[in-house]
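Bug report (template v2)

What were you trying to do?
Predict the complex of my protein with guanosine-5'-triphosphate.

What happened?
Run completed; filing so the output is reviewed.

Input:
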Amino acid sequence: MFSTDDTIVAIATPAGRGGIGVVRVSGAAAREVAQTILSIRQPLVPRHATFTHVKACAEDRARSLVARRQDLESDFVDQVIATYFERPASYTGEDVVEISGHGSPIVLRQILEAAMQAGARLAEPGEFTLRAFLNGRLDLVQAEAVADLIEAVTPLQARVAYDQLEGTLTRQIGDIDAALFDLVARFEASVDFPEEGYHFVAPGTAAAEIAAIERRVGTLLADARRGRLIREGAEVALAGKPNVGKSSLFNSLVGTSRAIVTSTPGTTRDFITELADIDGIRITLIDTAGERAPDDQIDEIESAGLDRARGARSVADLVLIVLDRSRPLDEVDCAILAQTADMRRLIVINKCDLPEAWPERVLAQQSPCALSVSVRTRQGLDRLRSAIACELASGGVSGGEVPRDTVAVTNVRHIELLDRARTALARAREAIDASRGTLSEEFVLSDLQDARNAFEDITGKRTADDVLEHIFGRFCIGK
Ligand SMILES: Nc1nc2c(ncn2[C@@H]2O[C@H](COP(=O)(O)OP(=O)(O)OP(=O)(O)O)[C@@H](O)[C@H]2O)c(=O)[nH]1
Ligand SMILES: [Mg+2]
């Protein structure tokens, strides 16, 4: 890993033009670097916003024709507000100076270069947050939540990330670990004073206490599938014959006229994706070419589109099978229903504003819960949205609900570690149960310690460098 002793600098605001842009400097020499490039006479005062100017770096000055005229004003690249945060009361826990200039990529680049010439090194992706973690300003769960909050696309995603940043998950894990620590301490006392036997902890009590801790881990994990869905989103593919209204439904769910809709069958040929917020879940919706009968004459383009459509269906988390209520079901509809029988799917009967060409009970065997909609009149679309969210959240058990409150666990890394802790706890409890009091405490202790290690891996009290690199590598430069 790179050195975390240097003073680092990066543009902290997104690429592009904006009202303001921020260059952030962090490290032991942050104030010195800032004072070198700013036109100030007094040292920067902690937590004070100072209006000042940034001087161009020497190379820029040499390049500037105006500078050759010795015009003093031309040495400046921008008017800025500089704010100094003295360690440890800063984002990174180090001395930090934030320089807010005008949001021009050229100007921000010049400020960045000036800071680099004054001794700062360009920050690696996520290095500010990495330093915050290394300096104990954030634990690992909170650091990961920073990245999730920045990347959130739906309000619900932002909400769960914010809760994690506030430390709700950290506290819950801390509470569970405290109960476990108490038990471990008593087991250790029993090991240290063997003549006392199970004096400090009776086997029956120990097994019950472990079971109680297992249940608490289980409660956290119970919601994890939904949590992961909120954090990572899901892919939903549309399938059906040509002209049944797939693209119309796609446009309606994403809220824009992204896909072309015409009355000509075979309108969509390529594979179109768009992000949609469906009941708080970030959905990548995929519109595809309509499925054809094997003997239909189709050209090379449509055939390539159909290959893509089938590929998209096979990897999607959920497939929406669209049927047309106004035209009789035929063998192509039946073939699609048969091919997707084992996939997670919802059957959507569209065009229910038109006269029915077939009775819904035809589908009773296929799926008892097909949804009737009309994209044209918008009838049934709200129910469809909730059905999509429920189907994804419930893991295939129909009738599941997507509760509106937030969840604690959303991250696969946390889920795996909680699972590891739960397995280790179960091992310890089963060993105690099986031994009927003759078991050596060391065995139990090693399993309990495994569970504690898993908790510490989650919050980052102990975490390997490669895990850190992986986590912070996800961040953008400047965060
Ligand atoms: N009456 C009625 N017409 C609809 C409805 N939904 C779609 N349509 C019409 O059906 C025709 C086909 O719609 P598309 O959305 O292009 O159908 P598609 O399934 O994407 O068709 P391909 O791209 O050819 O596979 C268009 O003329 C739509 O206006 C509906 O709910 N009611
Ligand atoms: Mg289409």
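What did the reviewer find?
The first helix runs from residue 30 to 37. Residues 396-403 have pLDDT under 50 and may be disordered.
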